[in-house]
Hints:
With 235 residues, the protein is α/β, with parallel strands linked by helices. The chain has helices at residues 10-19, 21-27, 64-78, 97-103, 121-126, 142-154, 202-220, 222-234; strands at 2-7, 32-37, 50-51, 61-62, 84-94, 108-112, 118-119, 130-133, 187-188, 191-192. The strands form 3 sheets. Strands 2-1-6-5-8 form a 5-stranded parallel β-sheet, sandwiched between helices. The chain has a 3-stranded mixed β-sheet with strand order 3-4-7. It has a two-stranded antiparallel ribbon with strand order 9-10. Bound molecules: 6-chloroguanine.
Amino acid sequence: MKIDVLTTFPDMLVPVIESSIARIAAEKGIVSIEPHDIRSFSENKHGKTDDYPFGGGDGMVMTPQPLFSGIRHCLDNVKPEKPRIIFPTPDGVPFSQDLAEDLAQEPYLLMICGHYKGIDQRVRDVWVTDEISIGDYVLTGGEIASLVIIDAVIRLIPGVIGTLDSALSDSFSHPLLDCPWYTRPEVFEDLKVPDVLLSGHHARIETWRQEERIKKTRERRPDLYHKWLSEQKKD
Ligand code: 6GU
């Protein structure tokens, strides 16, 4: 998978790309991520990428020209058939494991990082295929949201991690939240691992884990708990 990222802060992406799951995927030759500076596509002599909003209002809006040029530059290099062009934005559709799994099937993604008030609507109308929010809170820019989406997507690509061992056993691949996990030593600073996990009794261990998942889900995510309960009643 190739991922191009258009941003006015390319330096912000580099340390994460070079030290996360993205590096592992890149070393295996499975993913390449390339940040592009939107400023470098600006036809303005100062490299300006934003301006005041028509009709008034606080803050600045990113102008269409550098974004149209940057998008065309990225697409011309790759010529993807049906490019997914992603705009992370707090007014997008909620990001989810299902959406990450969908994006993980794509050979090419283009991410557009907005700042200030956002980007000129014409960029969204003409180019953007997916407007995605990573949660109900406001970040100052799309870079961190893009990194979140990229991380969630590339770990699902076969070969990036021990997919069967890890990704399939996550919370959110299950209907319930995950149970607690422990490793050696059995006692650490007077803190003991639950006896049942040392019992060697696999059926009892699985019962305990399922009870813990149910308890945590009921407390923290009543929405998921009730969905799970109604599924249980069908079987
Ligand atoms: Cl995708 N972008 C920004 N700037 N803020 C957000 C967001 C995205 N998702 C939640 N808050």
